[in-house]
Amino acid sequence: MKTVLIGVGQAGGKLTRELVDFDDRMEFGAVLDAVAVNSAKADLQEIPFETVLVGQDRVKGHGVGGDNELGADVMQSDKTEVLSALDDSVSAEAEAIFVVAGLGGGTGSGGAPVLVKELKRIYDVPVYALGILPGRNEGAMYQVNAGRSLKTVAREADSLLLVDNDAFRSSGESLEQGFDAINRAIAQRVGLLFASGEAVEGVAESVVDSSEVINTLRSGGIAALGYAAAESAEDAEGNINTVMSTTRRALLTGTSLPEASKADSALLVIAGEPDTIPRKGVERARRWVEEETGSLQVRGGDFPLRSGRIASLILLGGVERSDRLEAFMQRAKDAVKEAKEAEEREDPADAWSNDELDDLI
């Protein structure tokens, strides 16, 4: 899928850089162009593609300090500059636009919904968001920001592909090491999704193309992405069980939003050497995904890839019923309540009276 990426905020810029690097390294050619947008000048200095600094008149290049309402304001004020930077990027070849943002910070969580709304008004291609949920240990402000931003961007985007940081974090890692590892893992999964249907090694027996991705996300709302891989046997017959086991792991333990297994639609992509992908195994795995997700809209196909491994990639559309998502929203609401109680103790006259997770815009 030919895609244009827009990284908003620090987390969004870093993940976009990883996605561009992965696509270049694999020589997929799925990422047509990328732009990074931020209110903090320092966060743009190591970005190797075009950048746009927003909010200079308000925050002087120092960032919005986690204030996502200010992040929304500066993006609204400077949206013309951002859109101008995209003039040469969103060509007739583009099949989708992805706005990439961390939902817990200020610029990303506030600015991404504003930008998504404006992009949908201007362009005919689908405008998706790739949003990153903060981990449990990232502080109450990040939980509140993400709860509010999630509601808004899910409403504005054609679909919100959601990634929970806690799904990828390994014990013993520092916060910075954890984020770097998370970004690499996300870039691998999402990069393979973008590359589906592109010109790669070999010829797929059952081709996955961009329309399959777009149709899976068509229902809107929240989406998730699952992935698992294993060593491949030398022939297709020896990989029937491998395809089944990687598909089960991708859905049950390998999704970007843990415990999200019920979905309105799904796409199963089996990647590997063409001669090692078993038709019987792929069809059996597709039927299993139908039963497990409760969806009758399960698409499937091959992704020829020069590799000694077999990988299962599962895109899930419409996962709003996820227990993990419900638990996160409750965590965000609890954080709002705690912040309100703390402010009341400090200065009742200035208490934060809104204890709901209202939309940002």
Automatic annotation (TrEMBL):
Biased composition (Basic and acidic residues): 334-343
Gene3D superfamilies: Tubulin/FtsZ, C-terminal domain, Tubulin/FtsZ, GTPase domain
A Pfam family that the UniProt record links to this protein: CetZ_C
Gene Ontology biological process terms in this record: cell division; microtubule-based process; regulation of cell shape
SUPFAM superfamilies xrefs: Tubulin nucleotide-binding domain-like
InterPro entries: CetZ, CetZ_C, FtsZ/CetZ, Tubulin/FtsZ-like_C, Tubulin/FtsZ_GTPase_sf, Tubulin_CS, Tubulin_FtsZ_GTPase
Compositional bias ranges of the Acidic residues kind: 344-361
Residue positions binding GTP: 10-14, 106-108, 138, 165, 183
Domain Tubulin/FtsZ GTPase residue range list: 2-202
Keywords: Cell cycle, Cell division, Cell shape, Cytoplasm, GTP-binding, Nucleotide-binding
Major site of localization recorded for this protein: cytoplasm
Region Disordered, annotated ranges: 334-361
Example of a GO cellular component annotation carried by this entry: cell division site
GO molecular function: GTP binding; GTPase activity
Places the protein is found: Cytoplasm
Role this protein plays: Involved in cell shape control.
Similarity remark: Belongs to the CetZ family.
Protein's name in the database: Tubulin-like protein CetZ
Native source organism of the sequence: Halogeometricum limi
